[in-house]
Amino acid sequence: MITRRSLFAAGGGALLLSACETAVTIDGRFPIMDVLGTQPDVSEFRSALRRSGLDQELAGAGPFTVFAPTNLGWAAASAEFRNGGAAALRNLIAGGRLRLPDIQARGGRVRMLSGIDIRVVGGTAAEPRIQAARAGGAPSGASASVIRPNLLCSNGIVHVIGGVLIPTAA
């Protein structure tokens, strides 16, 4: 008969303990960086957060709302933006826990940590089209659709978007 003691003695303890690990889910129990890790199509953005040191900020209590571009959307951004570090990435992070209905209740506007605004400029209620705007200015630059909204995190919300949002130069 195999007992727990004999299993551990035979080196099976690690196997037994690994079966007890909890998989990361998007139900509000795990922090933003862990939830981003469950989305393979935003791996480039997640890597950029790590390189910039913002992963440590996003590990904090928050709450934060993150607009995470897909790898395809990230690749389409300028090299200047992709290599812009924390300053550039703050264009995609807002303070607060903002689901799509919360954004709509704010008139379709979100102030990002960088000081720019993200505004809803079209699309549908389930998949809005958003665009960046300089504070107090009209939306400009590339727009993107929210393709996977409301990924719940313990310290905020992630919205996966199809591009990088940067307002055009004034």
Automatic annotation (TrEMBL):
Q: Please name the InterPro entries in this protein's record.
A: Adhesion/Biosynth-related, FAS1_dom_sf, FAS1_domain
Domain (FAS1): residue spans on this chain:
29-165
Q: Which Gene3D superfamilies match?
A: FAS1 domain
Protein name as it appears in the record: Fasciclin domain-containing protein
Tell me which species this is from: Roseomonas nitratireducens
